[in-house]
Amino acid sequence: MELNSDNTTVFCETCVCGKSFNHPGRLKFHQRTCSRNKKRLAGALEKAKETWMSRKKRRLLDPDRTDGPSGEALHLFDVPSSVEGVETEDETMGGHDVVLRAQSAIENLEHSSVDPNPLSLAEGRPRRQNRQLPKRFRDILPVSLPFFSPAPLHPALPPSTPLDPSAIPPASLGPASLTSRIRQLFKTPKNVFGLSRQYDSGQPPSHDPEEQVDLHDLSDLPSATMTADASAYHRFGNIFNPYPNQNSFLLGDWHWNHGIQKSRESFSELLKIVGSPDFHPADVRHTKWAKIDTKLAKNNFDDRSDDNAEDDAEWMDEDAGWNKTPIHISVPFHSRAKKPGLQNYHVGDLYHRSFVSVIREKLSKPEDVRHFHYEPYMLFWKSSDTSDNIRVHGELYTSPAFLEAHRELQDSPGEPGCHLPWVVVAMMFASDATHLTSFGNKKLWPAYLYFGNESKYHRCKPTCHLCNHIAYFQALPDAFKDFVTENMGNKGDIKLIITHCRREVMHAQWTILLDDEFIEAYKHGIVIKCCDGITRRFYPRILTYSADYPEKVLLATIRDKGNCLCPRCLIPKSRVQNMGMKRDMQQRESLARIDDEVRRHKVDTAREIIYRKKFVINNQAVEALLREHSLVPTPNAFSRLLGPLGFNLFPIFVVDLMHEFELGVWRALFIHLLRILNSVDKALINELDSRFRQVPTFARDFEDLLQCAIPVFDGLLPEPHNSAILQLLFFCAHWHALAKLRMHTDDTLKIFDDITVRIGAEFRKFSKKTCPTFTTRELQRETRAHKRRSAKKRAAGGRPVPAAASASSLKADTPRLKNFNLHTYKYHSFGDYPNTIRKYGTCDLYSSEPSELEHRTPKGWFKRTDRRHFIKQMACIERRQARIRRIRARSGAGSSTQCEQCANTPQEHHHIGLSQNQHQHIGTFLRTNAGDPAVKDFLPKLKRHLLPRILSMLQVENLQDQTLLTDIQLPTDIQDCDPNSVLFLYDRMYEHNLLRINYTTYDVRRSQDAVNASTSHYNIMMLNKPANDNDSDNDYPFKYARVLGTYHVNVVYVGPVITRLCTMDGTRKSSIASTSPQSTRLKALVLLIHRQSYEAVMSYRPLPEDRYTVTAKECPVALMMHQTGGIIIFVDRDMFMRYHYGLGVGHVYAHCPSSTGAQQSAEETLLDEDVEASASDREASQMENEDRAAADSDSFSESGSEHSLDRYDDSDALAEDPEDDGDDGAMDEMYGSDYFEP
Fold first, then answer.
1. Are 465 and 885 in contact (CB under 8 A)?
2. Which terminus of the chain is more solvent-facing, meaning fewer CB atoms within 10 Å of its CB: N or C?
3. Where is this region: Disordered (predicted)?
4. Residue 1204 has what pLDDT?
């Protein structure tokens, strides 16, 4: 301060750089941008770090030692009153004054003797990996099912049946003893999600795979592929045998198990091998690679006479090698044929593996046995303390089918003198023919085996290698037609013989697979010593078989599209369209197919007529026996070999959602809707295409087309047909979403029952009322395809192709009339889905999708073959890769695939990148958006938004590290803190394109979604909590928002506690507000900078004219909006369950009784509607129920996660702002007046 001539005080201060200022605000702003002042501050911080670390080191070495002149511990920021130049009055000071106080304290300690510390600021700071988020950011992580309670166990007997302990024989009597006859229950406590287990046993199982489950096992995030525990394997002399050393093994593993098409990632793996310090070229220079590959590919059909056969014993004892067995069938020719009687025909060779050997190999792998369930259990869910236990359906080992097989085994007489535990091995078969090339006729018909004792979340991952290739089926060769023609002459139908022999070939091959060894194991079990040292007896049981419909009828030995076209029941084809009616649902049980002696006798009688009496296959006597129930004169291998043991083959042919609905009924409905549009106006097809082009890129298959079909088809047809079609599409999407769930409860299955009834009524209404109104014909593509097929058939029959079949004439032909057909098996199968889930578990267990995905494996192997004898070579490649994986597991060698740590850590709530390449100056940002209400008082609000999170971070650090903040008292009230104590480094905020959010799904899994403000993946959803209980206008359970940007800021906190440099990240977002819970029309976009505790600044922007905007599927909420404002909830399973409020097991926020009672699921009112309700009533009811739906929010947009700024350990980064423009004049307007003045 200085005095003027009139004795008035005038402000005059000089900066360390020499400039003088006569206004305090300009001095403060200049000091923030002054290079010399920043260098001085950086040096002070570095000295403070050295002093801090030296004193901390002395305290750790000598806890009783005290520093300071008075014998008390001197804290760095406890500034004494005698320090010169520091004011001690109790007054409110600005953030910059606090920095000056800290600098003065540091200068007072400059002359203290400190020990040199070579550690940087980042290296010296303690690691805090478990830092807690603020409460409203915390997300309940998935946990494994509850472990066993140490409490005493008691049998679950009725009170009127006391159990006399003296009457119980010793446990050594085995499962067939008296104690096994008495049903005992063992229950575990429930976990945080309310899940508990119940075993049909009086004691916990000896092996609990849930103990091995961690968060990564419960996560769908991409994670590092870890190597197996090598300690579980018996150590051999050379653990890399037949490779001579580790380096040669690593190269062989890289060549065979890292794919045939080498990528950049695969090249990096190769560089890690050859660039390792342990790699020596001499180790691989003389390796005999061809001999090793031949040794690894040995199978049972190879010659075992060579001298090195003994070296293979280490894996051949427990290795399921491939066998080769010739396939022979007897072809019947009737008495009028050229060569009547039976003729033997050699179809080819079947390459297969022994089922018993596959089971032994599976149970010898420690990495697989970890997750192998020896005992099934029932899974229950109790959402609250006042609710009842609800049965949960998810895995096969929790299904009634598995439990029934387990109880039947435990109650059986058993083996004499056997005291071993008895275990059911649940076998799940799948088979499907596939093309090996995009162009060509090379095909493969693989059969796969899965084990239901393992979790479906592991089985569905190809990287887990849990799919066992057990056989490569042979089909009738093309030369068989010549064989039939030669023996038949022109006396009969060749196609009838070929169709019959196809069934014969299939069951001849299954007769080979169900060999005597397997039948013996089915009766008496397989004794195996498991990896835990316990010897058990395993009984294989076939529970499911997944295949498409043509293969199902082949395996079930029924007629394709016959009178009774279902492989599970005997409902006639004429009543198939009644799916969902009460009588139809009852007849599915009363008319279920049973493999009994009556059926077998009919088949044997028909076969005797054909084979011994030399009648034609379709003669009247045979038809009278078999036609009523659509039987065929082929003995079923499953029935003949396993039927006498009590096996019923028909229930194993479970439903297949992909082929029956997505590629079946829904595909047929979609094509017929196109025909309807084409019949009304051909321009409507172009309008439909235009609307679909506005859908983001996720719409790639029929499943995705169904999810966005409602807004796309809306308004294309006149009323009442428009409303009827929208209603049908809604119930199709609703039914499909329920069928796709990975976790069902009894409550959701009741909903599924009701929706199944309703979708049947809607399809019948569509077929009877909507379809007859329009004259539908084939589409152009259907017409051309039909003509091509006709021309191909004529050419195959030796008849000349007429000129009318040319490509130019195909377009001119009149399309045929086409009607919508409900008399199909695929439509009939809809009624079996709820009960199938109740018996076997959810549809993803036995869907054909995993087997379709597994087809990629043999297609990759095919590229390594010579394309001629490829089946034998593929069998060798399968064994070679499996044995290399076993060597890797037992040796512990091989590098694990490491992914980016933060983005793939499931316990983190969200993640943004570390890059600071894209930054915005806060002042420039505010100037650019001047006039936008969104940036009004942006900076003060941002500070008030960050301040409680900084204090929360410091509070956690105080609790976790008592050596640093022992005597520091944190403020208990936010109002006691000055927001100006938050400073932004360089006045910058750093922008990120991608924001990843982790969240807990309805099925208690950890999943991840990505939000990108620069693409169409920018929509989010948040839980909407009313301000008070009486706020009826704001009781809609969730909010929607559009993310405008994702940023992080580097913050320096200079408050009364301690100076810290940290990073805060956050997102800017805009919400989509609804006028009321009953109105779903979207009115405006609301820009929301901070919500909940702070006032929202709204900027109304009109919606685009386009009413058919569909958002990205990868977004956490993935909203789809159409003209009525309704929200399509079917975009994924988790989104769907959020609208079924209170029914998602993993959605803990909805489990409280008050919220459950207040919310209603989306289908309650829908199911109360009459089937014949008017279109307007149906539409109003649909919209009302969508408004009532409730959902959770992963509240990731509050920008609450803090990261320690370890990357800013270099003091030079604080020295100078590289973009300091020195603009002092406009700062008051941009930052607000309270930025400079407290």
1. yes
2. N
3. 109-133, 779-808, 1160-1238
4. 30
Convert 626-689 into a string of H (helix), E (strand) and C (coil).
Answer: HCCCCECCCCCHHHHHHHHHCCCCHHHECCCHHHHHHHHHHHHHHHHHHHHHHHHCCHHHHHHH
- Among residues 557, 650, 648, 564, the alpha carbon closest in space to that of 828 is found at 564
Residues 800-806 have a mean pLDDT of: 50
Contact call for residues 1226 and 922 (beta carbons, < 8 A): no
| DSSP character string of 1184-1206 | HHHHH-------GGG---EEE-T
What is the C-alpha separation between 410 and 418, in angstroms, rounded?
Answer: 12
The span from the CA of 1074 to the CA of 1084, in Å, is: 8
Residues 6+ apart with CB under 8 A from 1193: 1020, 1021, 1022, 1023, 1024, 1038, 1039
Residue 158 buriedness (CB in 10 A; 0-12 / 13-18 / 19+)? exposed
The closest alpha carbon to 139, from 1171, 1214, 1007, 1206, belongs to 1007
Q: What is the pLDDT of residue 1070?
A: 38
Cross-strand partners of 271: none
Q: Where are the alpha helices (DSSP H) in 334-463?
A: 355-363, 366-369, 400-410, 456-459
| pLDDT of res. 1218 | 37
Q: Is the peptide bond before 242 cis (omega within 30 degrees of 0)?
A: yes
Mean pLDDT in residue range 468-490? 92
Q: CA separation (Å) from 1117 to 995, 1011, 1151?
A: 14, 10, 20
* Tens digits of residue pLDDT in 938-975: 888 888 888 887 877 777 766 665 544 444 455 555 66
Buried b / exposed e over 658-675, threshold 16 CB at 10 Å, is bbbbbbbbbbbbbbbbbb
Record the tokens describing residue 416, joined without a space: 């004499």
Mean pLDDT, the chain, whole residue set: 75
pLDDT of residue 391 exceeding 70: yes
DSSP secondary structure letters along 148-192: ---S-------TTS---GGGSPPGGG-TTSHHHHS---EEPPP-T
Q: Alpha carbon of 870 to those of 238, 261, 326, 351, 866: distances in Å?
A: 32, 19, 17, 11, 6
Q: What is the pLDDT of residues 908-940, one digit of tens each?
A: 888 888 888 888 898 898 888 888 777 788 888
Token representation of residue 113: 């003797």
State pLDDT tens for residues 1132-1144.
899 899 888 889 9
The answer to whether residue 150 scores a pLDDT higher than 50 is no
Contact 239, 890 (CB under 8 A): yes
Hey, which bits of 977-1031 come out as E strands?
982-984, 988-992, 994-1000, 1006-1012, 1019-1023
As a whole number of angstroms, the distance between CA 142 and CA 134 comes to 19
**Do you find a cis peptide bond into 80, omega within 30 degrees of 0?**
no
Strand 2-3 and strand 9-10: pairing?
Answer: antiparallel
d(CA 1190, CA 135): 22
> Which tokens belong to 1008?
């991840």
Decide if 198 contacts 185 (C-beta within 8 A).
yes
Q: Residues 29-48, buried b or exposed e (16+ Cβ, 10 A)?
A: bbbbbbeebbbbbbebbbbb
Q: Does 100 score more than 60 pLDDT?
A: no
Q: Which range in 445-454, 792-801, 967-976, 1049-1058 is most confidently predicted, on average pLDDT? A: 445-454
Q: What's the predicted TM-score (pTM) here?
A: 0.77
The neighbouring-strand residues paired with 1031 are none
User: Could you read off the pLDDT of 503-548 as tens digits, one per residue?
Assistant: 999 999 999 999 999 999 999 999 999 988 899 999 999 999 999 9
Instruction: Please count the residues of the chain.
Output: 1238
Check: CB of residue 12 under 8 Å from CB of residue 1. Answer: yes
Write down the pLDDT at residue 721.
Answer: 94
